[in-house]
Structures are given as structure tokens and as C-alpha cells.
Write a structure and sequence with these properties.
Elements lengths: L1 H11 L9 H17 L5 E12 L9 E12 L4 E5 L7 E7 L5 E4 L2 H11 L8
Antiparallel strand pairs: 1-2, 2-3, 2-4, 4-5
Amino acid sequence: MVLALLICMFMLAGCGQKKPEIKDVYPLIEEYLTAQKAKTCTGDVTIDSLRVNSVGDFIKEYGGWPVYSDFEVTCHSESITSTWKSTDDCKTMTALVRQTSAGKYECFIPEMFQQAQDMLNNMDFNKKP
């Protein structure tokens, strides 16, 4: 009984992992945003602005801590410049962060979110029905 209670407590607290601080996740979010924009950019990617606002509480269903940030990331290619901006409400999750078995933190997006993002990136909005 006591063992089961301890296991539940660890799961609710992120399996006993220490919640990352903003300074821990800032470089991870920079790397994540650059990599995400690079998927649809044939040129150079720049982070024009980034402010990590907070790290939320561990979400057991997703296996990580949500990171909320404001950002602006731009793709500079020969033919076009496109910018990806966060929403202005600071309530939109940028990514999740989890702790690896080696004790380091890493950014990730749950598979279901990544699939939806990939689908949106591949849509042709100029195509007529």
C-alpha cells in the first residue's frame, strides 16, 4: 500500500524529476524553433525574438512540462521571407520539455500534435476546391 502511494506521488510530480527552470529550457526552445521552421524553409532561419514566459506543471499524459513563450522566427530564402509568430496571449504552449535518463532536458512535441502540425505545413491553401 505504501509503495503504491509513493509510486503515485512520483508520477504526479513528474516521476520525481526536477521541474526545469526558464534558464534550462531557453536554449532548448531556441533550437526547437529553429529546427521546426527549417523544415519548411529553403534558406536561413533566424530567431528575431524569444521570451520564455514560464514552465508549467508536469503533464502526465504528455510526459513533460509545457513551456510557454513568445517568439518570432523568420525564414529568409531567395524568393520569399516568411515569419512564424506565437500568439500574443502567453497561454499557448510552445513545446514540452522532458528529462532524459541521463538527467538532461530535451524539447519534444507529442506525436499527435506533430502529426497535426505536419498536416498543416503540407496543405496547399492556394489550391481551389
